[in-house]
Each structure stands twice: as C-alpha cells, then as structure tokens.
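Narrative of accomplishments. A recurring question from our advisory board has been how the design workflow behaves on a single, concrete structure rather than in aggregate. To address it, we present the structure tokens for one chain from the evaluation set, followed by the sequence designed for it. No filtering or post-editing was applied between the two.
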C-alpha cells in the first residue's frame, strides 16, 4: 500500500519500546517525536500538528484513554492508535467508541506497525482532502450573490439587483417597465420561460443548472427559482425570480471529476488513485507489469492506461486472451508461423509479438497457459527474440509485456503448475485492482458514467438514478464487479421506458430483494488476498444485512461464532444502534 509521510507522536513509558517504534517509523520516512508520559504528550500535541499518535493505554499515573478526551486542545486533530500489552475486549471497545482509529496489542511487530500507520495516514489524508473540498465549496456558495428580478403580470421588468445585471447581462437601472425579453438579449430566454411557467401555474418552479447561452459568458450555468406574487385576494401582481450563478461550482465539479478519471479508468477512491499514481510512475519505464484482480474489475483498462501513459503510446497495443485459444493456436497467435509448418498453414503469418513490435503486448489470463508455453514466453522475456512456428531463425522483438490474471499465481507456483522463474519475471511491478465491493464510494461515479454512455447509445435522456435505486446499487456486493454493474444499468435502460430517473423497479431482480434475503454470496478470496480483503468483506456484509450477524454469517459462508471471532479480531463494532 502506498502511503504518505506523516508527523507521528509516540507516547510510551517504556524506553526500549519507544525507541524501537520510533526507529521503525523513522526508517519508513515518517517524522517522529516521542513522549514518556501523558502530560508530555499533551504538551507536544498542544503546540505541534501531528497526523498520527501511538499511545500506550497504561502510562505512569494516567490511562492513555484520557488522551481521547483532550482532542479539542490539540493544535490539529490527529488519528489515534491505542497500544496495550494487556488486551481486553472492554478496553478495545472503549477506545474505538471514544474515537480511536485502531487498537494494537503489544509487542507491536514492525509489519503491523507500518501497516497501521499506512492505513491511518491514508485515511487521514482522505479526510483532510474531503474537508478542503467542503471548505472550498462553502467558500464558493458564500461568495456568489443571487440575481433577483421582479416583474409585472405582463413580464415587464419592475426591479433587478446588481447581481442580476451581471449574471443576465442587462442594465436594470434604465430598464424598469421594459419587457424582459427585450432586456435579456443575447441569451436563450430559458429563465424567462421559468418565470412565465410559475405565474401561469400559480406555484413555485425551480429549474436546476440551465446553460444560459449568454453571448458574453458562453459557459455560464445558472439555477432558477421563480415564484408568483399575489395579493391576499389572489390577484396576480407579477413574479419574482432568483438566479443563482452555478458556474464556479460546475467548474469545480468538473475539476474534481477529472481527478476521478484516468484515461478510461473511473474512480476517486484511495485505492484507485494509488493505481493512477503507480501507472503514472511507470510511464517512462520499460518494466514488465503484472495486473491482479477479480474478473470484471477493469484489468484491461489498467493495461490500456499503462500503454497510453507511456513512451510507447504511438506504437501498437496488442491484446491476447490466453484462455480463449488452445495451446497450438496460442503458439501460432503469439509467435506466428511459416507456410507448411502444420496442416492448414497455407502462408506465412505474423504473430502478435511482431505486431506489437515497439509497443505493448497485453497477455490476459496469463495464469491459464501451459508449462510449455510458459517456457517459450520466459525465453522471449530473457532474450527479446522469438521463433515462428516451423522456423529455426530467431527474430528480434522490442515489446513491453503487461500480463493480467484473476488467479493466485503464487499458489500456482507452489502447486508446481506455474514456473517460478516466469512468475518473478512477470511480477517486477504488481498492480492489484480492487473489487468493487472494496471501493463502494466509486459506485455513483461509475453509475453516472454508464448512464451517460447508454443515453448516447440508445438515444435516451434518462437524467440519472433515483435515491432508492442508488441505495440498492450501493448495498449490493457485486461479485461480478464493474462488468456486473454495467449490465445492471443497461438492464435498467431496457426496462425504463420513459425519460424519468431510473427507479428501484427498473433494476434486476437480485438488486431489488430485501437486504439479507436472496443476496448472492460473496466470492471467495485467494489466501494471498485474504488479510487485506477479509475486513472489507465482513464490514460490507454486515452493513448490507443491517448488522444482523446471523444473516451476514450465512452470506459470508461462515458460522456465527467464526464471524464473532473475526469481528473481535478486526475491531469491528456493531453500529446498528
């Protein structure tokens, strides 16, 4: 896991433990300060901004849990991880309930220490980024004044404020009594239509995000609310229209949306942004890359991003699905053949390695090739040369290899069905694409992308997804990952015949079932992935089942007692209330 460098404080009374923890964290690049007592730690926290604090629960004259009660006095609020050599469920629950990020049992091994620091610092970075974005949005809203326009029943101007003059582009000071349609020149008149509709219907009308068409401000986007004005006797006096300039907000959202996209990859989660950064780091390198992930997670899109971002982008990206071809066909497909080399070889054929010369060769499902093919591929990687089928001459090739698999190659090496030397040749850099259930915050982004995609494909104007339908999409565990999500949205487009938002009844049946009933089981995770994925899977199942642990245990395929034990192991606290 890639993590940022952090400012870390260690509060620990045992000198040897304190020094060991500080050394491990310092060697990982973090800036570390230490304190031996709680008062010393509080004094440091009061004058120095820390990102993360490791605090022992048993301290001289104090309980480390007291630290959680003083966060309002800190220079900045850090994430806090409690440590103890005397673990108990009660203290763990108390620590987490009072706001601790994690709970570690001493002795804290280097691996566990660095992993907890990476998780905490990444979580804090995401929290800080969300706070910065929220403050930015609040500043945008606070700094934009609404334009206010009043009219008589004949849609003639009565009054308009300065902001309306700026937004709508007319001189309100000399325009009183003039028809609005004459004053609002150079725009499409959409706001005027909203005001007319409000007065005709006798009720408030709101239209969000109209593209003005202003000649002076071509990209201006506004939201309009129009309300009729009547006397107590019901006589229409005219109307008032509030025009809110949404342009700065829309621009900001577009910028944030760009941060959630990388080539054809979509997702703003920490895991996806780590992948974007890694792909960017690989841009000017010729390193062989192995992409791991379940089916449907977008491994092929990652391969495309690696090629497009790199120096070979002007040369071909050639893709081969290794599982779709028999061994004989795959050999000919990859290396080519000469005429007469086998029955049906009527002429020479160029293989995929030669097609990709100077570019990138993407070998999908690499875990399914035979050992004979593994050996041939290893020789190509070592010598940068190929031999066509039926030919004893070697041909040089300049190809970057990107491979992908949904299998645990390490386990296949241990079973003796995949060559260890080839495995290490392929995994110079590993990129693990997370399953969709591990990055649920990306689901709305993906859904909106598919809605736009299918609107274009089917020539529809569906505006989006209703809240209850989005909730069902968020709750589903997606064993088929992004591919399954895409099919679900396409299904909704077929069922939804009008132009309204996609509703719950438009989704596939398995997404409309009551939470915890008739839900698909979570897919199995390989032993190599289990430590990092298990906590996410358990939390997802509990949330989907409204924290009904018996139902969640069945969906996870484990006994109730096993689920309870793993909840204690991961510090997962029942949040059903």
């Amino acid at each position: 896991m890639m993590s940022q460098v952090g400012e870390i404080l260690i509060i620990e009374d045992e000198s040897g433990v304190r020094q060991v923890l500080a050394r491990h964290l310092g060697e990982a690049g973090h800036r570390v300060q230490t304190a031996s007592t709680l008062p010393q730690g509080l004094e440091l926290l009061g004058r120095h901004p820390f990102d993360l604090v490791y605090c022992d629960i048993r301290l001289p004259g104090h309980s480390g849990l007291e630290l959680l009660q003083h966060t309002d006095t800190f220079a900045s609020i850090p994430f806090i991880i409690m440590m103890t050599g005397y673990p108990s469920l009660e203290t763990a629950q108390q620590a987490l309930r009072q706001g601790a990020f994690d709970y570690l049992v001493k002795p804290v091994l280097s691996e566990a220490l660095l992993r907890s620091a990476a998780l905490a610092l990444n979580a804090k970075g995401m929290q800080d980024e969300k706070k910065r974005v929220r403050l930015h949005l609040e500043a945008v809203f606070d700094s934009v004044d609404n334009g206010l326009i009043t009219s008589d029943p004949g849609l003639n101007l009565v009054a308009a404020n300065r902001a309306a003059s700026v937004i709508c582009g007319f001189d309100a000071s000399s325009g009183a009594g003039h028809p609005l349609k004459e004053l609002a020149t150079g725009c499409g008149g959409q706001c005027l239509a909203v005001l007319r509709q409000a007065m005709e219907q006798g009720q408030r009308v709101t239209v969000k995000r109209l593209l003005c068409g202003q000649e002076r401000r071509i990209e201006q986007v506004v939201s309009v609310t129009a309300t009729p004005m009547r006397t107590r006797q019901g006589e229409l006096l005219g109307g008032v229209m509030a025009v809110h300039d949404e342009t700065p907000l829309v621009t900001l959202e577009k910028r944030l949306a760009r941060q959630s996209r990388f080539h054809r990859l979509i997702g703003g989660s920490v895991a996806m942004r780590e992948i974007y950064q890694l792909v960017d780091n690989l841009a000017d390198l010729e390193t062989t890359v192995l992409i791991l992930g379940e089916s449907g997670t977008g491994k092929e899109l990652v391969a495309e991003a690696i090629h497009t971002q790199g120096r070979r982008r002007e040369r071909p990206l050639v893709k081969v699905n290794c599982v779709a071809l028999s061994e004989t066909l795959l050999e000919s497909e990859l290396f080519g053949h000469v005429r007469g080399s086998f029955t049906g070889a009527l002429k020479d054929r160029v293989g995929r390695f030669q097609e990709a010369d100077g570019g990138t060769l993407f070998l999908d499902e690499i875990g399914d090739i035979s050992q004979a093919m593994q050996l041939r591929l290893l020789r190509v990687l070592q010598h940068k040369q190929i031999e066509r089928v039926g030919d004893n001459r070697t041909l040089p090739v300049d190809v970057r290899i990107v491979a992908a698999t949904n299998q645990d190659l390490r386990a296949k090496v241990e079973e003796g069905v995949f060559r260890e030397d080839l495995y290490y040749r392929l995994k110079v850099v590993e990129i693990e694409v997370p399953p969709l259930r591990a990055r649920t915050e990306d689901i709305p982004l993906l859904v909106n992308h598919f809605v736009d995609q299918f609107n274009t494909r089917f020539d529809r104007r569906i505006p989006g997804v209703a809240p209850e339908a989005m909730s069902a999409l968020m709750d589903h565990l997606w064993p088929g990952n992004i591919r399954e999500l895409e099919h679900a949205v396409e299904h909704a487009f077929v069922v939804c015949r009008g132009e309204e938002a996609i509703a719950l009844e438009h989704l596939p049946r398995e997404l409309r079932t009551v939470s915890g009933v008739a839900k698909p089981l979570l897919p199995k995770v390989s032993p190599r992935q289990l430590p990092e994925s298990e906590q996410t899977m358990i939390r997802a199942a509990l949330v989907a089942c409204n924290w009904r642990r018996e139902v969640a245990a069945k969906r996870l395929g484990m006994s109730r007692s096993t689920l309870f034990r793993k909840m204690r192991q991961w510090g997962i606290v029942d949040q059903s209330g």
